[in-house]
Automatic annotation (TrEMBL), chain A:
<dbReference type="Pfam" id="PF05138">
    <property type="entry name" value="PaaA_PaaC"/>
</dbReference>
<protein>
    <submittedName>
        <fullName>Phenylacetate-CoA oxygenase, PaaG subunit</fullName>
    </submittedName>
</protein>
<dbReference type="InterPro" id="IPR052703">
    <property type="entry name" value="Aromatic_CoA_ox/epox"/>
</dbReference>
<dbReference type="GO" id="GO:0097266">
    <property type="term" value="F:phenylacetyl-CoA 1,2-epoxidase activity"/>
</dbReference>
<dbReference type="GO" id="GO:0010124">
    <property type="term" value="P:phenylacetate catabolic process"/>
</dbReference>
<dbReference type="InterPro" id="IPR011881">
    <property type="entry name" value="PaaA"/>
</dbReference>
<dbReference type="GO" id="GO:0005829">
    <property type="term" value="C:cytosol"/>
</dbReference>
<dbReference type="InterPro" id="IPR012347">
    <property type="entry name" value="Ferritin-like"/>
</dbReference>
<dbReference type="InterPro" id="IPR009078">
    <property type="entry name" value="Ferritin-like_SF"/>
</dbReference>
TrEMBL record, chain B:
<dbReference type="InterPro" id="IPR007814">
    <property type="entry name" value="PaaA_PaaC"/>
</dbReference>
<dbReference type="InterPro" id="IPR012347">
    <property type="entry name" value="Ferritin-like"/>
</dbReference>
<dbReference type="InterPro" id="IPR009078">
    <property type="entry name" value="Ferritin-like_SF"/>
</dbReference>
<dbReference type="InterPro" id="IPR052703">
    <property type="entry name" value="Aromatic_CoA_ox/epox"/>
</dbReference>
<dbReference type="Pfam" id="PF05138">
    <property type="entry name" value="PaaA_PaaC"/>
</dbReference>
<dbReference type="GO" id="GO:0005829">
    <property type="term" value="C:cytosol"/>
</dbReference>
<dbReference type="InterPro" id="IPR011882">
    <property type="entry name" value="PaaC"/>
</dbReference>
<protein>
    <submittedName>
        <fullName>Phenylacetate-CoA oxygenase, PaaI subunit</fullName>
    </submittedName>
</protein>
<dbReference type="GO" id="GO:0010124">
    <property type="term" value="P:phenylacetate catabolic process"/>
</dbReference>
Amino acid sequence: MYAQLVETGAAEASEKDREFQEKIDRGVRIEANDWMPEGYRKTLIRQISQHAHSEIVGQLPEGNWITRAPSLQRKAILLAKVQDEAGHGLYLYCAAETLGISRDEMTAQLLSGKAKYSSIFNYPTLTWADIGAVGWLVDGAAIMNQVPLQRCSYGPYSRAMIRVCKEESFHQRQGFDIMRQLCQGTDDQKAMAQDALDRWWWPSLMMFGPSDKDSVHSEQSTKWGIKQNTNDELRQKFVDQTVPQAGWLGLTVPDPDLAWNEEKGGHDFGEPDWSEFHEVLRGNGPCNRDRLAARNKAWDDGAWYRDGLTAHAEKRRNMVAEGAA
Amino acid sequence: MDPLVTFCLRMGDTTLILGQQTAAWCGHAPVLEEDIAFANMGLDLIGQTQLWYEIAAQAEGQGRTPDDLAFFRTERQFLNAQLVERPNVDFAHALMRQYLFDAWHLPIQEALCESGHQAIRELAQKSVKEVRYHIDRSRDLIVRLGDGSEESHAMMQGALDALWPYAADLMAIDAVEQALVGIGMLPPLDRVACAFEAETAVTLDRATLAIPGNGHARTGGRTGIHTETMGYILAEMQQIPRSFPDARW
């Protein structure tokens, strides 16, 4: 859904680099055919492909509840949402392809475990309320990250994000609406909603990445106009937006240190467990293995399908060639 | 039961169960475009289900909602064709199931565009546009994969062999439909079976696939006789509403 730890590589400042930087500083969008430093290209490929992979893997935790959605309307909405996520994956892969990498290469990186995707999807969706919490919190956090990306210096990415953001805000509303219905429902439903908030709150805060003081790659990305806000700024914004919503729902945010700070005009809040964050990044989250296994199975089981279509296209080409001869 | 209610349940249950089976592919299909396509078809099918259930619930007049019909009936009360409950063995089965369904669904929706019942007519006029798109897609894939590699041909032939006997259940007509035809609520449905035969004969031939020749047919779904997979589908689909019967979602 966004990039947590994108490495930017070292950039050597040449004349071209300086011209490039001036363009960015003037707010000129970089397009696919423009010259760009290798580090910029690589950073974007990594960030956009991670983002695309996150959309693809993100289908799994939510797709987990499509067949069990508790009403026809909720089933339809969830299907539409997961379909949107797959669509986001598709146009983000296309945006990355403009930088000179193929979708097959990116897919191979995901399947081998080499490429990262948003760690949030390595947490399980255990009850129906998790679908509400994922929409409300996870998509809410994603929007915080993505709205600034609409102004990203790279044109194809920026334009993809404009479209993605429109749909994400619908996703967040549907998640909140699931929570609203649960919180206005029976005691069981309300308990389900609180339990989901308890489990998703901290992982959602971690979606913004490590604290600014520990975030090693931010500076160059900011200079290049890829990153617009720091991790901590966005996290603060998310907390300030979400806490009143939780209050309106009648839910308790699971953070004993949470308090309104009049002076800074925002909330003070506790520190996420960064050792957990790094464990999940290292592949040791609750679902890392399951998620990769599911994607690998889909790919491997589908080999006959892809080969079959290629074989048919080949036959058609030969027929046309023979007809022309 | 009122024949109109039965007919609407036969239609709505069929789209619901296929929608349920189709939607399960989300995130697990062979390419991203298929994830999107299957979600999209599932969405259309669930939407059509809601419309069928609204007509059924209204005709029944017992205050049941479309969700009551989906989540609080049991295996023997579901009247879907057996074809759509056949399991997601692999993607070849999913594609073939969809194609055989589409090859019936298009002509019946076209016929229903002339129904004497206003709500059914309107439903069909809306759905037929979606269904035309579905069969364009599934027919194209049947041809390309049937006439593709040796392996894809074998996969599609295997799926056809397994599923063809269930196609008869889509076309099964009994006193229910006859009664509705008799009062002009449904147009004559014989042409649906003819259209299905014509469509599948041409397409399967182009796909170099052979229709199984033993005439073996499985029917019963329309009267609530299902295959062993049906109970599992409902158990999964109905689990939450049945666990919390007083809750609204």
